[in-house]
């Protein structure tokens, strides 16, 4: 059976099984008189405050392909009441093992078939949830994807990752052809995902590698490719989030200067990973001249504390938050976060500005 036939068959099976997903609607959000798509798009209008506070908490789903992936994303959206659907895809096929700087030239763009599974998931999520919520796939940075394609899974091979970092540091210029190849593939994916139904993209700037490559290597070698993804997303889609990965805590307020010229509708900064000093949510929003997504520590009260402790953290954040704001965390929540606890906190946040008008005005 050819790859094309296989993908067509898989698409047919997904479509046939979609009716099973309707059962998940039983846990739909309690308010029925609003549309989350419209509420999210309203956050782009910074001339007025948003009384309804949108919320985004995500996790890294175990399920990446087929109906299982669709179910996982729909279930999280339904159970937690978050305000948009973030689609993750974290498999990139090994290309060529890289041992010397010369090996970078062996990296080639991915075959278009690499993206078919993800595009099928986006299509099905658009069909199931597109009338209610924005569908926003994550796009990982060229550097992160490249290191994985070179044979080093970031989360599991610590020694291999350290060796890769050292190889890049030894000859940063040598990585350019490989970055070009991977970026070309990611640009293809962005355009095809938009055609498949994506409303925008969660552009994860530079992945996990800021700690090792901040400064000149980032600005002169990595940024042109990193920035290209944000440019293409802004060209094709109306709602894009620039996510600056937390990456080990080296970030300083000055580091943000590297990102001020990136496009993106929303900024998602590493609020709790500054080194030496910090910025408030209001200051970040003013600095980037766009709304901010964030505020909460992903390993904090929402994960480890009681619901009341999490609500107290929310109170403190929203009393100081910008007038137009999306509540969230610096990055993905731990995968074993309790969806029921997340839902109860999300419901609390949604109406916070209506129920706390007096304290918010102080």
TrEMBL record:
Biological process according to GO: porphyrin-containing compound biosynthetic process
Taxonomic source organism: Tannerella sp. oral taxon BU063 isolate Cell 6/7/9
Signal sequence, start to end: 1-28
Family annotation (Gene3D superfamilies): 3.20.20.210
Keyword line: Signal
Listed GO MF terms: uroporphyrinogen decarboxylase activity
InterPro entries the UniProt entry points to: UROD/MetE-like_sf (IPR038071), Uroporphyrinogen_deCOase (IPR000257)
Pfam family, one: URO-D
Protein name per Swiss-Prot or TrEMBL: Uroporphyrinogen decarboxylase (URO-D) domain-containing protein
Occurrences of domain Uroporphyrinogen decarboxylase (URO-D) (ranges): 96-352
